[in-house]
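Entry, Tuesday afternoon. Goal for today is a structural model of the target with adenosine-5'-triphosphate bound, before we commit to ordering more compound. Inputs were pasted exactly as handed over by J.K., no edits. I checked the ligand SMILES twice against the vendor sheet because last time a stereocentre got dropped in transcription.
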Amino acid sequence: MSAASFSSLLQASEKRSPFEDLIGSGQGSNSVAVTALPQGTVRKHFKGYEEVIIPQTPTAQMKPGEKLIEIKELDDFAQAAFRGYKSLNRIQSRIFQTVYHTNENILVCAPTGAGKTNIAVISILHEIGEHFKDGYLHKDEFKIVYVAPMKALAAEVTSTFSQRLSPLNMCVRELTGDMQLSKNELEETQMIVTTPEKWDVITRKSSDMSLSMLVKLLIIDEVHLLNDDRGPVIEALVARTLRQVESTQSMIRIVGLSATLPNYLEVAQFLRVNAETGLFFFDSSYRPVPLAQQYIGISEQNFVARNELLNEICYKKVVDSLRQGHQAMVFVHSRKDTVKTAEKLVELARKYEGLELFKNDAHPQFSLIKKEVVKSRNKDLVQLFDFGVGVHHAGMLRSDRGLTERLFSDGILRVLVCTATLAWGVNLPAHTVVIKGTQLYDPKAGGW
Ligand SMILES: Nc1ncnc2c1ncn2[C@@H]1O[C@H](COP(=O)(O)OP(=O)(O)OP(=O)(O)O)[C@@H](O)[C@H]1O
């Protein structure tokens, strides 16, 4: 973390937020400027660095009268898309009335893992319900467009929704990159999963409006990317959708799904979401697994000494987690740094006699799995395996990446050092996540 951002974090801890009581309310219409660190935050000083420990937010209590909606209460056709589920979770139950029974635009901001996929499913079921007439689904009347932030995610969304909607005979297809769908394929498809860039290109061709005229529901996943480099593309396609709604006077419902955004009121306004009725904001007290955070600011100026310290701190955090019997993931900024950091962890473990914490050779399947691992031509993967450490980045072969993911998820690897690519689209459970360094090199600016 840079010195400037760390000091602003510390300054923030000294202010009290006027909205403190609202944080954790999980309600929609208040603009909460988070300017203070939560109560219970502790600051510790060490040689060369300072640590700020933010305790986990307690899980929000059920409100009086709040109840979970059971799947068996849903319409028969809707139950088919929820096979294997007993009930909607808290967030889904809270938004159900608006998402399923109305055609309002909505924006849902919720922490990761809160179950936003099922919110999209509910909005799709509403749309399907609109076209169920005389016991028959009029599939040619509508198209649903799901905008996923990247190609890899679009593929995953396509497969998830194909499976969920297969009992309803809905056809879900991916349309990304330089992919084309034939006229026939488009006709057969009710749900198109695409990326902002691809949908932008398709809708920009004003000569052929036949597809966009059929769109009745536009789901935009990870809409917080509006704040990012990709923002202008998302903005353009939303603006075009809104213009089409105005000029044709036909409704296209917009459903925005997002991580918790600080400026959700503005995003809601932009998506034409009514802040009173269509905006749902759930803060970290709705996380399925509460999150405690620790920030470390390094004051050491010398580059080599700072790196050494960074590695030592990283090692210490990983060991703290392993001692409690939990796996750990370490995120680094470059592919090269994955192996370097993994090797450094092993070196420090040797130095501090901590190797036994990392190694997992007593695992009943260790020798069997080792036979599979040694077949890999990735020598780092093979060497690090013996120490219970794995690496994962986009430059590795897909088979090696897949193997590493499996070994970590089965608990055979105790530590995984990876780049941010793993955070997109792969769900791996880890109790502890260390983000090693928050400074990113920006080639455009030519600096950190
Ligand atoms: N009603 C439910 N009952 C039980 N499990 C659920 C329910 N809704 C969602 N889940 C589970 O919660 C997990 C997280 O759901 P999901 O991937 O939709 O979260 P998300 O909010 O989209 O997360 P992300 O921000 O990471 O995309 C999944 O494993 C899903 O099966």
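Residues 391 and 417 are 5 Å apart (CA to CA).
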